[in-house]
Amino acid sequence: MPAPARVRASVRVVRRRSHEEASVSEPIAYTALDKGAVVTTAGGERLGTVEHVLQDDSLDLFDGLAVRTHHGLRFVGATQITAITTDGVETSIDESEVAGLPAPDGDAVLEADPEQYQGQGLTAWWGRTFHREHWLREKE
Predict the structure, then answer these.
(1) In whole angstroms, what is the distance from residue 90 CA to residue 21 CA?
(2) Would you say 116 and 134 are in contact if contact means Cβ atoms under 8 Å apart?
(3) With CB atoms 3.0 to 4.6 Å apart as the test, which of 17, 35, 58, 59 could cross-link to 21 if both were Cys?
(4) Percent of residues in the chain assigned helix, strand, coil, to nearest 5
(5) What is the pLDDT of residues 48-67, one digit of tens each?
(6) Which residues lie across from 67 on neighbouring strands?
(7) Domain limits of the chain?
């Protein structure tokens, strides 16, 4: 009678990250910022959330951020940003300076509304027939 075959068991050790390791934020590029990321003041208070990243793609130039604050939409320049991390954006701005930040200016931000030409109306027919995109101003 032949001897039974031996089975080798392999053990894989999985190391869990501690709470301290999990909470460490990593630096990221401005291109990885999402709308809604938290923006904080120099003192760590919440300044607002990222509305738009302002950049010139052709030059790979970061100009700053349009930030939604309790004072409305405000421009935070690239020189006022001290860190961009997985936790959000840190700035050199004091809480007292937030109200004095300028509103973003320049060309309007537009976005395509693909559902504009859905339906049975004449506008929808023209849109489908001539493949014209309908642009809408982004609501503030």
Answers:
(1) 20
(2) yes
(3) 17
(4) 20, 30, 50
(5) 999 989 888 788 889 999 99
(6) 50, 74
(7) 23-104, 107-140
CA dihedral (89, 94, 96, 100) in degrees, to 10, reads -60
What pTM did the predictor assign?
A: 0.61
Cα separation, 40 vs 82, in Å, equals 10
Closest by CA to 89, choosing from 33, 43, 51, is 33
pLDDT (tens digit per residue) in 94-111? 989 988 999 888 766 555
Residue 37 buriedness (CB in 10 A; 0-12 / 13-18 / 19+): buried
Task: Give the pairing of strands 88-91 and 38-40.
Answer: parallel
pLDDT tier at 11 (50, 70, 90 boundaries)? very low
The H or E element spanning position 89 is strand 88-91
Domain 23-104 is of which CATH architecture?
Roll (2.30)
Smallest CA-to-CA distance from 89 within 138, 24, 27 is with: 27
Helices (H), the chain: 19-22, 122-130
Tell me how many degrees the CA angle 65-46-74 measures, rounded to the nearest 5. 35
